[in-house]
Amino acid sequence: AVRAYTPHGGSLLFDHTNLAGRIYLATERLLMRRGDLFLFESQFSADMFRRKIGVPRGLVRVVHNGISRAEFEPVQPPPDATDLVFLGELRLLKGIDVLIEAIARLHHDGRPVSATLVGSGPDHDLFVAQVERLGLSSAIRFLPAMPGRQALSLGRIMVVPSRAESLPYVVLEAAAAEVPLITTNVGGISEIYGSQAGNLIPPDDVAALAQAIGQALDGGAATATFAQTLRERVSSHFSID
C-alpha cells in the first residue's frame, strides 16, 4: 500500500506565531513522517509546505484543482445584475472590507458602483456595519450562500480581493464561466493566470482595487477579451479532463 497525503491549503496559511498555528503545523509535521506520496493542489502550497513543515521524504507531485466540463458553459448576467459580485466566506481574510472601501472611494469620485456579496461567515455583521457606516446600503447587497454559477450571474465582474489563498476554486469557476475577474496576487492565483499574472493586483490595497474596478468597467471589449483568454488557459491547464 502507498500512503498518499494531501495537506489542506488552509493549514499552510498559519504560521508559528500563535498557538493555533503551532498546533496545525506540528500536526502536519507528524503526518509528513507517515506519507509515501505527497499531493499538492498548487506549486505555492508545495513551496509553503517545504518552508513551514519540511522536505517530504516521499514522492512529491503538484496536481492542480480541476474544473468539470459543465462549468465551462459561459454565464451571462441578467439586465439587473450589479456591477460586481463577490462569492465566498465572509471573513476579513477574504479582503471584503477592502472591497467595500474601494467601492466607497469610487462613489466619492462620482462613480456609483453596485455590488452583490454572496456567502456567510463570522464577519458578516462587521461588513454590514461597514456598509451602513459608509452610506452604501443602497449600493451593496448581501445574499446567503448559493450554488456558484447562480451567484456568478448576479454581477458583471467577479472580485476576489483576498489577503491569502491557496488555489481557490472560485477563481477557476469564474474563469471557466468566462466571467471577467479582478483578483489579488496571493497564493497560487498566479499559477491560474500564467502569462496574464501581471493583471493581478496587490492585496490590502484600496486604491489599486478601485482603479482595477474602474478599468474593468470601462474596458468593454478588452475586458471581455481578457475573460475569454483566461477561460482558454483554464480549459487547457485546469480541466478535470
Describe the structure.
The chain is globular. The protein is of the alpha/beta class and 241 residues long. Helix 3 packs across helix 8 and helix 8 crosses helix 9. It has nine helices and eight strands. The mean pLDDT is 95. 36% of the residues are buried. A five-stranded parallel beta sheet has the order 6-5-4-7-8, sandwiched between helices. It has a three-stranded parallel beta sheet with strand order 1-2-3. The protein starts with a strand and ends with a helix.
Low-pLDDT runs of 5+ residues are none
Strand order of the largest sheet: 6-5-4-7-8
State the shape. Answer: globular
**C-alpha termini separation:** 26 Å
Alpha-beta classification: alpha/beta
Q: Give the SSE order as H and E letters.
A: EHEHEEHEHEHEHEHHH
Main β-sheet description: 5 strands, parallel
- Total helices: the number is 9
Features:
241 residues, globular, single chain, 3-stranded parallel beta sheet
List the helices and strands and how they pair.
Layout: E1 4-5, H1 19-32, E2 37-40, H2 43-52, E3 59-62, E4 82-87, H3 96-108, E5 115-118, H4 124-133, E6 140-143, H5 148-152, E7 155-160, H6 169-176, E8 181-183, H7 189-193, H8 206-219, H9 221-237
Parallel strand pairs: 1-2, 2-3, 4-5, 4-7, 5-6, 7-8
Helix pairs in contact: 3-8, 8-9
What is shown here, in short?
With 241 residues, this protein is an alpha/beta fold.
